[in-house]
Amino acid sequence: MTEDSPQQDKGDEGYEIVFKGGLLSIIDQNLTDFSPSFGEKYGTHTKQLDLSYNNIMQITHLQRFEKINQLVLDNNQLQSKQEFPKNNNLQTLWVNNNEIADLREFIECVRKAYPNLTYLSMMKNPACPNYFVGKDAEDYQRYRYFVLHKLRKLKFLDATPVNEKERKEAIRVGEYMVPAKPVVKATSPPIERETAGGAHEEETHQGEIKGKARIGVASYVYYGKHSEGNRFIMNNDL
Fold first, then answer.
1. Positive or negative CA dihedral for 91, 96, 101, 103?
2. 229 lies in a domain?
3. 130 found inside a domain
4. Domain range spanning residue 107?
5. d(Cα 8, Cα 127) in Å, to the nearest integer?
6. Where is region (Disordered) located (predicted)?
7. pLDDT tens per residue, the chain (238 residues)?
8. What single DSSP character describes residue 187?
């Protein structure tokens, strides 16, 4: 296997898998867990892993992916407690639109596993008190102070860069700024992902992901049913 040779296969369990340039994409395949067989085949060659639009609650079997520096888990069902394996290489973690409700618990899992994390986005989670869940700017700033207090190397949090003034204030008061746990409501039926022509899906996905790409991390091509081309775009590429 070579990193630059595009490969598409159905995998041992019939999942649609795309691997190219060190990016492994297994998107919208109704995965409920991440099989160890993926690590056996792709682990040593993968630098970027995208498992968006699945049904994963607990992400496991990442031990063989020691070289990954970007992990995208958007639009799953991730819970607050995760057992991420230690990885000093990981710099980017996207967990937008999941079921993360306990901020303290989740951030502690991230802190222990990814000491060099510089980019984190967890918008549209119950634990992220922004306009998506009806919270105001003050609530969101408290959330940022807490996260930045725990993850001292972050340069971007959600869609906003971290400035030195904010970082200093986070170090000073962040420990006391953890938002209260949201009230857990009964799970509502999943929202239909697309209309007959797929227009709804494209509109929703671009709204939450493409809108943030302007302050993105690196440039790589995103494959799958929800492809938008370059998912991560550097500022100087705009």
1. positive
2. no
3. yes
4. 7-181
5. 36
6. 187-207
7. 555 555 666 555 678 999 999 999 999 999 999 999 999 999 999 999 999 999 999 999 999 999 999 999 999 999 999 999 999 999 999 999 999 999 999 999 999 999 999 999 999 999 998 655 556 888 899 999 999 999 999 999 998 999 999 999 999 987 877 766 655 554 445 444 443 444 444 333 433 433 333 334 443 444 445 543 334 434 443 3
8. P
How far is residue 162's CA from residue 138's CA, in Å, rounded to a whole number?
A: 16
User: How far is it, in rounded angstroms, from Cα 106 to Cα 76?
Assistant: 15
Q: How many domains does the chain have?
A: 1
- Main-chain phi, psi angles of 148, to 5 degrees: -70, -30
Q: Please classify residue 182 by burial: count the beta carbons closer than 10 Å to its beta carbon, then call 0-12 exposed, 13-18 middle and 19+ buried.
A: middle
E strands within the chain?
7-9, 17-20, 23-25, 48-50, 70-72, 92-94, 119-121, 156-157, 160-161, 221-222, 229-230
Supply 104's token pair.
């303290």
Cα separation, 231 vs 96, in Å, equals 14
Cα–Cα dist 62/182, whole Å: 29
* CB 149, CB 171: distance < 8 Å: yes
Q: What amino acid occupies position 31?
A: L
- Residue 171: phi, psi to the nearest 5? -65, -35
